[in-house]
Design brief:
mainly alpha, about 120 residues, elongated
Length: about 120
């Protein structure tokens, strides 16, 4: 499994949910126009509309799954912080400082830039 794809897939799921209805309208509209121009008694573009409708529903379901997963991760992080609080954060920071000096420096830079000026 490609780890970059694993990280970018949630973004793709959400963008597909936004853009897929517009893509479906475009494709169905073109097919309806072609069907109308070459009409021989059969409206076949309805099958294209049916298939694109399924694609839109799948895109919405994937986006809902992504949003649900992000919500669960946020809730879990909030629960852990509320349960263990500042003590767990300090313990983790001490561990990071001992095992990874670069991580300690990064944490100091982040906290230094996040501090209000003045």
């Amino acid at each position: 499994m490609n780890p970059i794809k694993l990280l970018t897939r949630p973004i793709k799921n959400l963008t597909d949910a936004v853009f897929m209805p517009f893509k479906a309208l475009f494709v169905v509209g073109i097919c309806a126009l072609i069907n109308a121009m070459t009409f021989h008694g059969q409206w076949w573009f309805k099958w294209v509309a049916f298939g694109m409708g399924i694609a839109v529903l799948v895109a919405f379901a994937r986006a809902a799954k992504t949003l649900l997963l992000l919500g669960l991760v946020a809730w879990g992080g909030h629960w852990v912080y509320r349960r263990y609080g500042r003590q767990a954060r300090d313990t983790f920071d001490d561990w990071a400082a001992r095992t990874q000096p670069q991580a300690r420096e990064l944490i100091e830079v982040i906290r230094g830039s996040a501090a209000p000026a003045g």
